[in-house]
Every structure is written in structure tokens, then in C-alpha cells.
Fold:
Amino acid sequence: MTDRLDGPTTARIPRRAVTALVTAVGVVACVTWLVRNAPPEQPAPRPVPAPDPAHATTDGSTLAVRFADARHGFALTGACRRGPAVTCSYELRSSSDGGRTWQTRPAPLIPVAAEAGFSADLTALGPRSVLIVDRGRRWFSADAGRSWRAVRLSSGRTVPEVPPGATLVGSCPPGFAATAGCDRPVAALDPRTGQRSALASQPRLLAASATDRATTARDGSLWISGIQAGKPAIAVTRDRGRSWRTVPLAAPTTPLIGVSVLTHDGRTVYAFVRARAPAGVTVKNGLAAIWRATDGGASWHRVRPRFPGAQPDSALGLALLPGGRLLVTTEEFDRANLRYSDDGGRQFVRSPGPAPSLGWIEEVDGRYTASGAHGDFFTSTDGIRWTPIPSYRRG
Structure:
């Protein structure tokens, strides 16, 4: 999956009157789900607004949580304070015990006016390496947030393969535009510097920076999704990026949003294609098709639903769970929105028990981290039982 932190896909986000910090963070979560998968041809979004000054508070609110491995994670929080003018500031939290306890670190971001809103995001590059991106600027820390330095997006170098410890990411601008910087659309993100270095050998696709991070399978293969000639495409490398196999899939009948790839073993692979929903279906992130390969990606077959409605109309978060079960979160924000499939995607059923409403889902080292519908975050090791992440205390 490609790096989603260097810039959101384009979308038009409606203005909202936010009257409390909890409400504002709920908007952050919902807008995040929509922005990261929105159609690329629309205008760029504005930052999510902070609370109304008349209702500003000093309570901390979690804006993003990312884990580097099963134990080490980072959380970005924001809080607004009353005064002659309401200002909103950020803090970084660091955890080394799987999110059970957190330590406060300084954040390199300056306070912003309430009307400017929260817009920063972060990515965990390693147990002690973290990157914060805000409004086109990037700050990197190699000591778990104790010190920071500003860095450029690109190192200016070309590398023959993805180095050990580095992350495979896409580097095309939002909208998949073939503009400057897209001649080398796949890169290695270095956990030592926070910068990208283009790969000398490139797959035959445009990999966008705001869809999904690359997937690393247990057999060492690296998988990345993108666009090839207007069609969703999946690329795989089994030699750390020195050579590639790229397979285009059939284009959806409505405008394409993006494609996500899931695999654990590198043999059974799923591709979820998102597209604009057809007329009469009121969802933003339409699920157009599910594709499956059982031979390491050599041949792909579309997964047909068992009956009409057996597959959800929308797909926000996606996860491949232990044992091969699939998890999709939908846009039903007013109720538990988890859907599970035990038959390879032919039929999805609701969560069998109480469950939170979740948005995006990220798997790292067997840990699933998900955003909640009200600005909260959850973690799970099986994708069924979800535990709130206590990255801050409310006042």
C-alpha cells in the first residue's frame, strides 16, 4: 500500500459549524475517511476546522495513531485554549508497550488559529523514527520525537532496490497526474532520514501517495496498487524492487477512485476496487469489485457475490484477518459498520456482537489499528475484538 501521509486525495469537504472538541474530532475522522479515497478530479480540501472559539477547551484529542511494529507507536493530539484569541496546538505521544501507556513529546508544529483547523498527519517509520507532514512541510525525528529536523520529500537519489527497513511507497501527486515527479512514481521511504529515493526499476503503473501503503507478504514479496491506462492495477516485486510484474484489472463502470491490495502469504491476494457509486446508491466510497488471485498474482478472477447485496455498497477500511477472513468497514456511521467474509468475499455479514464504528484500518506486524467514528482510535490483534487506545486523558 502506498504512503497516505504526504497529501490527501482531492475532494470537496463541506464546511461545518463545530461546537465542541469531541464533535470536531469526529469530523476529523469522518473527513479523513472520505478524503483519503475521494475522486481525484475534485478540488483540494481545506483543513478540518477546530472547535468554535466560544466552546474551546483544553482537553486533548487524538488526531492520528500509527504503529511501527507491535509495540512501538505514535499518536498526534491537538488541543485548543481560550485566550484573547483561541489557539490550537499539537503534541506527539510515543508508546513502547503496544499502546498501553504513552509519553508526551514535543511536536515541531506551531500553534494555529482555531479557524485554520487541524491538518497535520504522521507516519511511523520505525521504533524510533517518525515523520510529521503539515501543509506541504515535513519534519523528521530519529529519537522518538525528542528532537526534530525539517526534511525534503525526496533525497534526490535513485536506488536499485528497497533497502532493508525501508518502506515501499508511491510518489505521484493527487489525481494520478503525469506531471513532474511522476516519471519515477514508486520510491523507498528511508526510516533513517524520512526522505524518499526513487527506484531505478519502476512498475508499469502510477502509484498515488494518498491511497494505501505497500503490502509486505511473509514470503518477502512487495505489493503496490495504482492506475494503468485508466484501469486499476496491481504490481508485485519478489526481489525488493529490481523487477516487477504488473497486472491491470477491468475498469469499473463508474469513475475510478482507487484500488487496495491485501495479502499475508504472497499467494492468496485480494484487490478491492473503489469507484463512484452508481446512481441511486448514496455512498462516497463505492465498492465496485473484489478481485482474487491464488497463484501469487499471476491470474486474477473477479469475486462474484452469492446474491444481490451480499457485498457491501461501500468500503472505507479493509483488512485481511488471521485465518483468511476479510473485514470491510462501510459508511453506516450511525451503527456498528463492520462486515466480515469467510468465503473469500462472496458474502459479508455483520459483526456478530457489539462493535464500534470504524473507518480506515492499518495492519502492522499483526496489529490492526483503526480510527473510530467519534475521533477515537482502536486496536486489535484479530480484527474482531477492538480495544480503545488511551493515547490521552480527557480533562
About this structure: Residues 1-58, 175-180 have pLDDT under 50 and may be disordered. The chain has one domain: 21-388. The two ends are 37 Å apart (CA to CA). The domain at 21-388 is CATH 2.130.10.10 (Methylamine Dehydrogenase; Chain H).
